[in-house]
Structure formats: C-alpha cells, structure tokens
Amino acid sequence: MKRIRTVVYGRFGESSSRGGKEDTTVCERLRPQDFAVSKSFRYGFPHQPTCVAVDSVQGILAIGTYTGSLRILGRPGVEAHVQHEGNTPVRNLRFLINEGALISTCPEDSIHLWNLRQAQPVIVQSLRFNRERITCLHLPFTSKWMFVGTEKGNIHIVNIERFDVSGYSINWNKAIDIQCKTHPGPVVQISDNPIDSNKILLGYESGMVVLWSLRSKTAELRVACPQKSLTSFHWFNDGKQFICSHTDGTLSIWNIKGNSTDTLCPNGKTSKETRPCAPITKVQWLSPSSGEPLILFSGGTTKGKRKGLTLCQGKTTKLLSPDIILDFTTILSSPWKEDAQIPRAVIAVTTSRLLVYDLMTSLAKPLAYDVPYTFEIHESPVTCTQYFSDCPPDLIADLGSLASRLKKRNLTREASRQAWPILGGVSGEQPEKPPSELIITGHADGTVKFWDSSSASLILLYKMSTVKLFEKEKGKSSEESSDSSERKPSTSEGSESGERSSQDEDPEAYSIQMIHLCEHSRILLVAGAAHVLVMSFSMNEKPVEFVQIDLNLTFESSHEQPLSPEPENAFMQPGDRGSTSSPEIPSHTQQPIPLPSVSCKTGMFKRHPGFQAELACVISNSHDGWPVSNISLSSQLGIISICSGPSLALVDIVQKKLITTLSAHEMTSLAESPSNAPPTTPMSAIPMTPGTPGTPISLTLNLEAGGGLDFSEATVNKLEKKRNKPPRPAPPMVRSKSQAKSGDPPNGAESSEGGAGSRQRASYPSSGDGGPPDTVQCTKFAYTYTKKNDNWISPCLFVGTAKGNTFIVVINMPSAEERLKQPILTIITGTVFRPKSGLIMTLALLDNQGHLFPSPLKFWSEKKNDNSSNKTVLPQECSDRHFLVTITEREAKVFQLPPAHSNPNPYSKTAVADDTSVVLIAEVIVIEGSSCLICLTSTGQLMAFSLPSLTTLMSAECSFLLTDFRYLRTLKFSEGGQAIVMCSPYEIQKLSVFTRNGSSSDSLGTLFRALETPEKPSQGFFSSLFSSQASPLDREQLFGKESGAASRSVAERMQGPGIQQLQEVSIGLAGAMQKNREALAERGEKLSQLDKKTAELSLNAQNFADVASQITLKYKEKKWYQV
C-alpha cells in the first residue's frame, strides 16, 4: 500500500503534495543469469616457488609453488595460471619438449599431465602411486616412456600416452651389489646416457650411482661415492663421464669405467685450508662452443652464507647470485643431449625473484636480463590497494609520460643486450576498444605505485615516496611535533633530506594504510596510522607550500574494563597491526594503541611533476589513540573527512584549515535525547560571517524538533514569524576556542563578537551503557536531503557508526567569492537512521532512477584561472526522491529520502548474513549503468543485490578470498563488476562477477604454437663406421605389452577435467559426424536416382534420334507432292 503524505512548504503556508516522489518505479536491468565469479589475470611473482622447468623449443617457462599453483610464462603478455586441487606443493615439473604438455608431481604421489594446447591448461590424466612415494622423474627427449623414481629405491616406467605403468621395473636390490647389506636410500635422480639410450644412470641418496643396462636388465657399473651422500648428477655430452654433487659442498667427476678423475670444492678452497661448505643441491655440466667445460651449481657456499648460484669454468669461479636458489635450469642450443650443449641462458628462482643470466655474451662476466614480467609488486609489502576499471584515459597517459620524464639514470648493473630467451606462445587478440584500468598500491615503506592493468601485463606508470615528506630527527619530543605554529620551515627540498634513515624510527610509522584517489579531480589522499596526506596533480614542476594540521583526537574512557570480542574480531590475524586501521575489518571493540609520532617538513618546496603534497593532517599522540580508520573526499566541496575511532575530523583542503571535530557519542546523545543537548544560543545570534575570517565554526542544531537552519528565503521569513510562539528546544550554539579552554558556559553574544575557533576536545565520555565507546566506521559526502519532509537538497556528510546509527552533518558552504575567506559551517542534525543490526559497513546514495551518486566532485585542470575551481555548492530545491543504502554486518536496507518521520521504515531490506556469519566487505558499484551491491561474508559467500529493491542476483562460494584475512583490505570492486585482491603477498588476482564483460582468455593468448622438432645431429661416415655404439633401443618392445602388466595396486589412473571436456567435445563431434554421414548417404541416394534418370533420358534421346533418322531416310528421295 502506498503511503500518502501532505506537508506544508513554501511562503504563506503554501501546500504541495509529496506523493509524486513515491509513484515512480525504478527499472532494474540486471539479471541473475548475467552474474558469475570468474578469474582472469594474475599479476606478480609466484609466491613460495619450489621448482622451475623450461621448454627450449617452444620457448615457455613453468614455475611451481608450495601452494600448488603453476605459472606458465611465454613471451611478455602470454601466460597462464592453473591450480592443483588441494593446494598441495609442486615437487617436480617436466615439459614434453615441443609437445604442448607438462607433467607435474605433488606430495600425494600423483603424476598429472597438463594439456597446454588450449587457452586455459587443464589436467588430462593423473596417475597416483599407492605403495611408494615419488622422488624424481626423467623423460628422455622424443620418448613416450617416463622413468619414475621412488622413496623405496625402485624405478617404475610409465607410458605418458596411455598413462599406465609398464611391467618393466628396476628394483633396488637388483641395482646394488649383492654384497651390499644396506638399503641405498631413495632415488635422487635418473638420466639416460646421451650417446647410448640403452644405458641409464641411477643415483641414490646414500651416494650409490648405478649404470643400468635396459636390455640386459643388469648393472654394468656401481660407484660408491666416498662422501656417502648424493644430491644430483649430470652427464657430459660425450656420454663417457658424469659429475656428482654432495652434501659436503664438493663435486666429484667419474668416468663410465668407475674411476674418479677429480674432486672439486669450488667455494671451500683457500691457500691454507679447506673450509666447510653448504650442500650443493643441483649441478649441471655443459660444453660451450668455445673454451673449457662449464659447471653450474646451486649451494656449495661456505657455511654461514646463503646458498647462491655459482659458475665454474676452468680455474675461474664466479658467484652469479648470493640469494637462496630454490631451483635452476638452463636453456640450451639443442634438445638432443648428444649434440654440443651450448648454454644460452640460465634461469633460477629465489624466494622472491626470477633471475635470468646471459651465457652467450661473456662467461667471464655473465650479465643478467631485465625480466619483462611484472614481478616487482612485492619490493615492499603491499598494504592497501585501489582499483579503477574505467579510469580516464588521459590520466593514464599523463602518468605514463611522467614515468618517462622522471626516470632517473641510476648507475646500476649493466643488463644483457641479447633478446629475451622466453618468446613462446602466441599473443591474444586485442579488443577494438581496450579498457582503461588503473591499479594503485600502497606499500609498507611509504611508497605509492600506479599500474596500468589494461592488458595481460601490468605496467608501472608512476611511483612516489611519502617518506621524504617527514622529518627524521632523533629524540624529538611530542610537544615540538604537535605545535605547527612554531615549526620552522625547511629550506631544502624534501626529496634531498628525506633519504636519510634513522634506526630509532618505527618501521610502521610511514606505512600506507589507505589510499583514496578522485580520478576526475586528481586529488590523492594517502593515509597512514596517524597521518593523512593530501596531494594534487600537476604536469609541471612548481613551488608548493606544504602545511601541517595537528588533530587532537584523543579519547579517555571513564570505564576501564576488558572488552569482550565480537564475532568479527575472531577473523583478525594476531599481530597484524595494519588491520586495526582497515575500514573493512571492524575495530570498534579494540583498545586504543600507541600511535607513531610523525612530523612533516613544512614550508615552500619545489616539487617534481606528478602528485604534489600540499597538506598533512597528523593525529597528536600524547596519549594512546585510534589509528585512521576511514577517509573520504569531496573535491567539489574541498573537504576531507578523517575517522579515528570515536572521532571524526573535517578539514578544508582549500583553506588548509580544520573545520571541526565530532564524536559518535555526541551525535548519538543528540539523536536519542534532544532535550539533553548542550545549551545553545538563540537563532538570531548566529553570525553567518564570523568576526575572524578563516576561523572554523561548528554548529550543533536540533532539527528533529522542528527547528532548523534552512537556506531558502521563505524559510527565513517563516522563522521570523514563529518567534512569538512557545519556546522550542535549544537552538544552535557557537563555541569558541577560548571557551573550550576556560570551561566558561557558552554565550551567544560573546561568541558572535569574538573569534570562533575549532571544536577539538581533549576527551569524550564513554557510552551510556558502560560498554566500549561508539566509533565512526564510514562516511559519505553527498548532495541530498538533510531533513525530514524537506524539498531542498544541500551538501552534507553521512556518518555511519559501530552501533548501527547513521547521522547527517549538514555542510554550509560560503559563496564562490568568499570561498577562500569565509569558513565552512557544519550542522549536526537529529535525523538518524537505525538499521539495528550491527555496525555500518558502507553508505551509498542513489537518485530517483536508482543510479549511484558519487561524492560531489570537480574535474582536473592544469590552468590556474579555471572558473570551475571557483564554483561552490549551494542548496537548491528538488522534487525527486533519493535513496540511502546502508549495509551493516548483518543486513542491507534502503531508505527513501527525504524521510517522513524520525524513525522511517526502510524502502527495502534483506538479510545478508545469518547468525553464524558477518559481512566483511560491502561495496556499491555500477554495472552497465545500474547500481549493484556486492557483499562478502565470513563464510566465503559472495553475494550481489540489485538496487534499490535488494533483489538477490548472485550467491557464490568464494572461500579462496578468505585464505588470509589480511588480504581483505586489498579486495576492491569497481565498475562493470571487476575486482582485484591480493591472493598472496606477491600476487594480485583480477576477478569478475559479471559475465557480459567478455572473456579474458582471448587476450591471454595461447602457449602452444606448431613448430618443427629440431633434427637429430647427423653422424659422420667414419664415426658411424667405427662406432661401437649399440643399435637404437626399441622402447616399445622393451616396455610394452611384451614386458607384461604391472600390478594394479602399484598405481591408480584417474581422468582429469580435460578428459571430460574432450569427451564432451568428442560426443559433439560424433553427433556432427553422424549427421554428416546421414547427409552423405542421402546425397548418395539422390545422386544414384539422378544417374538413373540421366540414363533413361539418354536412352530416350537415342531412340528419338533413331526414329528421326529412319523418317529422314524414308522421305529423303520423295518429292513434296508424293508425301
């Protein structure tokens, strides 16, 4: 049933019906079938890498991680990310060279075959061993038989085409000497002889190395290393000798006759003694085109140092990298082992970097390649993000131009000039209208980075550091840092003196906790735990005055009692200090913490082009307090809001002055008991122009009781007529700074004549129920109705608190001519919305058609005399209704504006979380012109609702977003249903909840391309004539059906999702083929009928011709009159 309201407005008691605001129905175009969660690009270095493999023919690289993920890289812009089920670590990776397939092993003793010939690689086959644990793999080139070593010392052979186990196996008791009475240990490595494929080399952990003959099934050579250990070995390309690495940091070289030719200790030799070294984990022995053989190994450094990557050639030993090398591989000139193994590059993975060294230019001093992938996101830990899926293209272009102009010529290491060796895959098709996407990351070292994420590659556009804006003096007292008026301006540029570091500084003092960028006005807010920086964008180098404002936002509770944890408090990671300042994770139940002491370098500085700091708001830390929990900006109003626990500060960024400070307790008391509001002065005593220009004034006004401050001429005249009526509750009050210090009662006459100061408190009382104080959770600038039954829209600020209240702070802006002179007035109204279901997570405003209202903003212009920057926002009359969307930790409600009474009923509402969960993330976004609410609960449910009806559009299981709750602050949604999240400390994952955005697989490209396999090196006539090499090995005959079948209990075959897809495709193909066969049969029948008809016509034509010939002969000699 529709509600009809009639309210009297205007001059002389004019009445106007407000029913028209409710009759219009909102058309919602979003449909549930268009919503689904999908992953697209993943940026950054793989977290916790374990192994690496390379296909030198296809030119692709694969990196396995501890969490079970695989990153497969081709040329820049061509890559794929896949995940094993169960998130188990990846132990081994082997490419099927030039076959478009990859084999991986996991700790559950499973072998997985990945198909790389499609856009998104999938598992085609899996083989799980039941009795033995897999330790190593070996797949000879161009062979379909793979050797699998186990922990028990046995070797099994697997056919990778059928993915079954051969009956041929090598047991450990047959490989070792009969006189040996001990187990040789697990199989460490398996490798076939480069010259004779009949012979393979088996290495055991105890130091036993066995040369096994596949035909005779006997051991031709057994070598017991004196080091009693073995970590790896590698054949030389002549097939006559091999090198072994050991746990004592030594290398031993052996020939196939069992004689040790040499023992090396590259990093342990000194002039006097041999120092102990760390174990060598992997070794490779290569033959370059010129010079002596080349030995590459990881580890082997002296104890106490990190195990790095070392290169040895002759008597020269060079440490390529001192970092911890987890695995490495080399790119060779030919995949055939019997050919000359000319190394082109060596690829190594560390815990946080990918290292690629050029071995073609100079072996004496190998140069490192500049890695073209975006692997430097984690140079400093990412603490917060912001994402724009529809960023203005000119902003990205300007940031890109600054990157080229400001690039410093640092004297760093020389990079290789050779072409990047990983150039596999085929680039995807680029869309006709490429998107314009921007990602901003804040880091723990105080840096802010801007990335272009419009394609599969993440491009760094611009980088700036905020640390240089702060003073780094040792032993500076808090009184010095809090008094900005006595601070001496620095005479040098901040970028010069800001590079000095102090050991006494708090490492988290300059950590970036929040970022807010208005992409249209190009005003950037950067917040730390105790400071907020305001920066404006400029393409020119110019002098800028940097001002600091100290905010006294301390809180002293009169009730000292332990706080009971709320349900959402259980999701916070212990020791995660940054989470206390996150707006997504509730912090109203936390105790105040010691805030870092920071002080800025104020004064006039010449700033480089880009974002230039103009204002710093610093929270005084004389007592423990709350860190900055929320920031918001209205570029058109020129105001920012800073939330810190129970306090809220409004700052004028145009005049660079504090407007006012508010508390959640004061707003709650005013809404609950208007009669208990502080005494105020008469309405007539309010000066619209204070005596001291530029001094902030705060007004506290009770609008629930019918009084108020309206901005129309009709309302002013109406208030004059109502003065003779019975007295109403207390009108507004003007407080001066002198009164706040002396404690004198407010007086309207005195405050109208004296200068008014900022309303900063030293303490706030606790909540009335003796519990924890109410805290400000979120704010939203708007241009809407501020009173019940109102027909004027004006600039205001919506404030959401932890106890579920939503308040309105009216902002009275001066005229455009007086904007730089007159202060901004704020009025706390009694209008309050109470969802009564927990703390307020997010607030949003919608217009009459359900379109999202952004905060009042302006557009950026480099011109100083731009007329748009002088415009101000004044109240104006409006007849359309608005909607207020409030999302709490339990439910979502939509209220209609203006409200009909003090406790309005919601326009629509829905439960988002049940009794066992809470809402962790809530954002209102725009998808194809329609508003949509996205919520993530603590149970991993990602839900979407249409606005303003709150109709459910999607409810998907997204538990992968809750793997680490510290990453929740980096989950950001943007227009079009796009989102980003830090899926690990090193990686950014891009998501999509809307299916009509288009598939990103086309732009990813494909990893496989059809290439010819390099030809086997030809053998000379005399070499083949006098060679003693045996005939080629027939592996099919040796390992095939003639060898028998292996026991079914050895391994179990499982089909992967790729087989199911192939079956579905094959079923479709089979149906299509059947239809084609039926069509061909029908066509054949028709052709046969056509042949018959053609034959009949031919016969009839022949008969006709014969008859015609006979008639012609009959009448040939007759005259015409004889016929």
UniProtKB/TrEMBL annotation:
InterPro entries: Lethal2_giant, Lgl_C_dom, LLGL2, V_SNARE_CC, WD40/YVTN_repeat-like_dom_sf, WD40_repeat_dom_sf, WD40_rpt. Residues 578-592 have a biased composition (Polar residues). GO terms for molecular function: GTPase activator activity; myosin II binding; syntaxin binding. GO terms for biological process: exocytosis; Golgi to plasma membrane transport. It is a peripheral membrane protein. Gene3D superfamilies: 1.20.5.110, YVTN repeat-like/Quinoprotein amine dehydrogenase (2.130.10.10). It is found in: Cell membrane; Cytoplasm. Residues 1058-1118 form the V-SNARE coiled-coil homology domain. Residues 748-763 have a biased composition (Low complexity). Pfam families: Lgl_C (PF08596), LLGL (PF08366), Synaptobrevin (PF00957), WD40 (PF00400). Residues 472-507, 558-593, 667-699, 719-773 are annotated as: Disordered. One of its GO terms (cellular component) is SNARE complex. WD repeats lie at residues 434-461. It comes from the Eukaryota. Residues 472-490 have a biased composition (Basic and acidic residues). Keywords: Cell membrane, Coiled coil, Cytoplasm, Exocytosis, Membrane, Phosphoprotein, Repeat, WD repeat. SMART domains: WD40. Belongs to the WD repeat L(2)GL family. PANTHER family: LETHAL 2 GIANT LARVAE PROTEIN (PTHR10241), TOMOSYN, ISOFORM C (PTHR10241:SF25). This is Syntaxin-binding protein 5-like isoform X2. It comes from Actinia tenebrosa (Australian red waratah sea anemone).
